Amino acid sequence: MKTNSIYLLTGGVRSGKSSYALQLAASSKKPYYIATGWADDNEMADRIVKHKEERNNSWTTIEERYDLKKAIETAVSNGADIVIIDCLTMWTCNLMYQSKDIDAHTLNLIDALKSAVVPIVMVTNEVGLGIVPESKDGRDFRDLLGWINQKIAKVSDKVIFMVSGIPMVIK
Predict the structure, then answer these.
(1) Residue 29 above 90 pLDDT?
(2) Domain coordinates of the chain in residue numbers?
(3) Which pLDDT value is given to residue 34?
(4) What would the pLDDT profile of 123-145 be if each residue is shown by its tens digit?
(5) Is 51 among the residues known to form the active site?
(6) Contact 98, 66 (CB under 8 A)
(7) Distances from the Cα of 62 to the Cαs of 15, 32, 75, 146, 151, in angstroms?
(8) How confident is the model at residue 1 (pLDDT cuts 50, 70, 90)?
(9) Positive or negative CA dihedral for 46, 133, 164, 171?
(10) What is d(CA 90, CA 96) in angstroms, rounded to the nearest whole number?
């Protein structure tokens, strides 16, 4: 893995994206994990606990719902040798429902990715392969995440599509 490689892991729910991201960081001495989710109910709290249990004590976690550029810069300035962002899907949802400037946040993230001096591995969902959402909010979210995924894929060195736990390199 190059010292400044940018990876985008995409695929469906439970396709193995997060597990594969951890595998990419297996030899890291000082890995950082940027978590974009939060526990707003018991089920999500359980999910977060399970994700934390998948990582050993060498991991440092930064919880950041909006400003991924700041989180990346914090990780790098604290000596991270790899950064995993899990996930862009939740980040997009956070931005959308807090009426944040999504274009500006996306451009700031891209700027941070281009200037990063350590590998960055991002996890996202491919939501455009399913049925058309019934609600306008659902369609807007699907379209927005698709747009963000395209922008991030363009600046990524590797894009990997996960299917049933199997990584398929598409870029």
Answers:
(1) yes
(2) 12-118+132-150
(3) 97
(4) 999 998 888 889 999 999 999 99
(5) yes
(6) yes
(7) 24, 7, 8, 25, 24
(8) low
(9) negative
(10) 10
- Residue type (1 letter), 16: G
CB under 8 Å, gap of 24 or more: what pairs does 24-27 form?
24/82, 24/84, 24/119, 24/121, 25/82, 25/84, 25/121
* pLDDT per residue as tens digits for the range 31-90: 999 999 877 788 877 877 777 777 888 999 999 999 999 999 999 999 999 999 999 999
User: Residues 4, 48, 51, 59: which is the catalytic one?
Assistant: 51
Place of tokens 């922008």: 151
The predicted-structure confidence for 158-170, as pLDDT tens digits, reads as follows 999 999 999 999 9
CATH of 12-118+132-150, one of 3.40.1000.20, 2.120.10.30, 3.30.830.10, 3.40.50.300: 3.40.50.300
